[in-house]
Write a structure and sequence with these properties.
Helix content: 10-25%
Shape: globular
Largest sheet: 12 strands, mixed
CATH architecture: Clam
CATH superfamily: Lipoprotein localisation LolA/LolB/LppX
Strand order of the largest sheet: 7-8-9-10-11-1-2-3-4-5-6-12
Number of strands: 12
Radius of gyration: 21 Å
CATH class: Mainly Beta
Strand content: over 45%
Number of domains: 1
Oligomer: single chain
Order of helices and strands: HEEEEEEHEEEEEE
Distance between the termini: 58 Å
Length: 261
């Protein structure tokens, strides 16, 4: 009888702990969402480093990018610009390097994507999709919850500022991929200032760090107007079946995972 009572009490304590933890997570997410909603404009520059190894191949990636948004009436204008450098080292000792760039602009009505790589430049125009999240909102956290098991970790300090730390454990981890993410959100601004990706062996294989953050800066409207480079034709898919594959915003930290060589 005592063993049964102890087991019942232990089960109740575990359940209570989970309920409290879930409530704390919900409160933290709401605080971050509310802070973001109060932000009229934002510009963030960041660097991401990734390392991935499989079957003798080593892939090192450096992403140098920025994103910005501006609330204008009931519209959210968005811009992201990311430069990507990949260095692939092969088992025979040789290596190959590629550099790409991805520019995305949402002017509130249309989304434009410009991609630059070894094969040249291409551009696309599509309708803006209200179901795609360009800021940290309820859609953002719901998407995280579908991909990961999400928990609120203990508060930490980044650059002398208190941060919420949200820990995400992947439901399905590809070989050598990110098994756990730690997302750091500034408790004063709600900005995601740091992200750490950890593999199943506990090794850090990805780190994203904000290098410059401007909250409510003055951003000109033409910052969110797309201008195609000379000689680049913009493919209009606003009335095409391809609109279902319209470009997404710059990857959220949860999506910035190493790709297989």
């Amino acid at each position: 009888m005592k063993k049964l009572a102890f087991a019942t009490l232990l089960g109740m304590n575990i359940l209570t702990g989970r309920v409290v933890q879930a409530a704390d997570l919900e409160a933290a997410e709401k605080a971050i969402i509310d802070l973001t909603a109060q932000t009229k404009s934002l510009e963030v520059h960041s660097k991401t480093t990734q390392s991935f190894s499989q079957q003798g191949h080593d892939l090192d990636t450096l992403m140098d990018g920025m994103y910005a948004f501006l609330r204008k009436g009931d519209r959210l204008l968005y811009r992201s610009d990311v430069k990507n450098r990949n260095v692939l080292k092969k088992p025979d000792g040789t290596s190959a390097q590629t550099e790409t760039r991805s520019l995305i602009i949402n002017d509130g009505e249309f989304v434009y994507a410009l991609n630059e790589g070894p094969d040249g430049k291409s551009a696309m125009k599509n309708m803006a999709n209200a179901n795609i999240s360009y800021v940290v909102d309820r859609v953002y956290f719901d998407r995280l919850a579908k991909q990961y098991s999400v928990e609120l970790a203990s508060e930490e300090t980044v650059n002398d500022k208190p941060h919420y730390v949200i820990e995400c454990s992947a439901r399905n981890t590809p070989p050598g991929g990110v098994a756990k993410m730690r997302l750091y959100f500034d408790k004063k601004t709600g900005v995601n200032t740091k992200t750490v990706g950890i593999d199943s062996d506990g090794k850090t294989i990805m780190t994203t760090t904000a290098t410059e953050i401007k909250v409510n800066p003055s951003l000109p409207d033409d910052y969110f107007i797309f201008k195609a480079p000379e000689g680049v034709e913009v493919k209009d898919v606003t009335h095409s079946p391809e609109k279902s594959r319209q470009p997404s915003p710059a990857p959220t930290p949860a999506e910035e995972v190493p790709k297989k060589p």
